[in-house]
Amino acid sequence: MTAAPEFLGTIPESELAAVLSHLSAFNPTEELGEGVLLTCVDGRRTWQLASDDVCATIRGGRHPFTGAYLLPGRVVQAADRMVPLGGECAMHVADGGVTIEVRETLRAAYSLGTAVPRLRTFGGQAVVRARLPFNDLKLIASLIGDLPMDPTDFEEMAAQPPYATIRVHHGRIEMLREWAYMGASDVVLSATAETDGLGSFMVNILSFDAHLSMMQIDDSPRSEVMVSFDPGFGDFLAVEGDSFSLHFARRSRGAASYFDRLIAALESGNIDHRTDSEGIVAAMYRGIPMRLQLLDGDGPVLRCTATVLHGVPPSEDLLRELNLLNSTRVSTRVWLDNNMVVVGSDVRFDDSRSPYPTLTAVANEARHLGRMLRTAFGGTAPGA
Question: What is the mean pLDDT of residues 44-68?
Fold first, then answer.
């Protein structure tokens, strides 16, 4: 909100059309105060819409102003309908509202969105790059989005999320989508590109195709775009042109798709943890060092392990004792691994499960078994 009116510039019809082409894919909820972010970056009007899957940033004409505003989606729709082909409108913001004026004869006023406007920024993630014509990328994205013809079991088809792998290597960019799980043909589509680096990245292909296919860009028809991502640690894949950028969130299949949920659960409980490049989590829970890993089994599986004792030489008596302990346990098991006694548990992990019952069970077992086995077989407890 500003005390004095702020002039956002004279906006051409082509710029409004570019923003409008993304609007239906995001459909910001007006009654929740959501809208289209409009601010100024490096002297250019900058529009932004975001969802869990993608963030779209459209760079408009040059006009400096200081504020950041959330415009209800209807503002963009109204401006696009009011402005004739090849025309333009003036836009002002004042006292919590935005006004559109066309040819000094038409005027529309709306309240601004009430959510806090925040411009999302992205940087430092480009390790792999591919440059190619926008229309080539748009075409292979459209084809990879096609469904198998005349599917007989829609529930089976929907059993896997709509994800595809984008791979860059040796002068080409590829898109791979798997359909073998339902008996249909897997698909690989590719296009020639100027590439730098090798790697792959998984995205929601329905979102990827929708945004590229609906886009109207004020660039040359054969304009090129840069696709870039960090295959190891990046959270987003970027598609960047002269007047826009799209950032698509990384997606995973199987147990890996629950990794963010596991981390969120640990953070909500203020559990100290670290993650390595393989996705294995080291956590300290109730004074017990633990190793957490998500695995694919009959559904997603969380494996939680803790070292009971270090430096325990193998012996027949020890192995006999561990076998006896396993025969009396339901959800945990104990084994010897490279002179270490380890306790662990594998449990199904999905949206309905919390990791804390498993963490508690393994921590209690590690503490109990450490005291019991050290007396008989020696060794050192972790941290001792």
Answer: 93
Distance between CA 69 and CA 93 in Å, rounded? 8
Find out whether 4 and 44 touch, Cβ atoms under 8 Å.
no
11 vs 62: CA distance, rounded Å: 10
Residues 179-214 have pLDDT tens digits of 877 788 889 999 999 999 999 999 998 889 988 888
- CA 27, distance to chain mean position in Å, is 19
Hey, what are 146's tokens? 């096609």
- Residue linked to tokens 């598609």: 239
Asked whether residue 1 carries a pLDDT value surpassing 70, the answer given is no
- 316-327 pLDDT, tens digit each: 999 999 999 999
Q: How far is it, in rounded angstroms, from Cα 263 to Cα 22?
A: 31
Angstrom CA distances, 22 to 25, 110, 283, 324, stand at 6, 20, 41, 63
**pLDDT value of position 383:** 55
The first and second tokens of residue 100, run together, are 């559109």
Distance of alpha carbon 206 from the chain centroid:
14
Cβ-based neighbours of 76, under 8 Å, separated by 6 or more: 16, 19, 20, 23, 36
Average pLDDT value for residue range 359-374: 91
Which DSSP state fits 235? S
**Could you tell me which of 42, 208, 23, 15 has the C-alpha nearest to residue 121?**
42
**Among 339, 333, 384, which residue's Cα sits nearest to residue 361?**
333
Contacts of 88 (CB under 8 A, 6+ apart): 10, 11, 12, 13, 102
Q: What is the rounded CA–CA span in Å between residue 169 and residue 271?
A: 39
Tokens of 350: 């999905």
- Tell me which amino acid residue 293 is: Q
- Closest by CA to 71, choosing from 90, 93, 102, is 93
Q: Supply 217's token pair.
A: 């860009």
Q: Which of 231, 56, 17 is nearest to 129 (CA)?
A: 231
Within the chain, what is the greatest distance between any pair of CA atoms? 94
Alpha-carbon radius of gyration of the chain: 27
Question: What string of DSSP letters covers 191-225?
Answer: EE-EEES-EEEEEEHHHHHHHHHH---SS-TT-EE
pLDDT over 80 (residue 258): no
